[in-house]
Amino acid sequence: ADLCDFTQVTVALWRLQQIVHEYSPTFQREGDGCQPLRRALLVPAPGSQHTLGVVIVGEFFRRAGWDVGGDPRAGLGDIQGVLSREWYDLVGVSVGRECKVDEVASAILGFRKASLNRAVVVMVGGPAMALMTDLVTRVGADGSAPDAPTAVIEADRLLAAVRAAPT
Q: Within 10 Å of residue 53's Cβ, how many Cβ atoms?
């Protein structure tokens, strides 16, 4: 019904992100406490303004023992720069409803080319998954998940398969 204007929504989302960060230590204590052996870079699709989901998914990965990086405001060049300097096992891309498939596919290709890890796993998620069941194939990702807990399980499965593959 558009009862709130852009500023009200922005402030509310900012506050929700603050709450996620405020409760993060409690959420993490409830996790398995293992040492991170896996690194994930979680980012919104280029040009996306919907970043709350990325923040929340990151908390689930941390709880499962992943070392998580990412800046929801980072541009495409920033993300590629990080991937070229630091090792990541996984890149997770949150794709909003405003998805431009060609741009996401191009970004993923750029992430793979820039990555120090030649076998980096790329997953996609977000609202666009409900609209495009073939999004994984269309953008050249390795997998997806419908929610944060399942994303962690699927990421672990995909990473295990990559690590078990002959080099």
A: 20
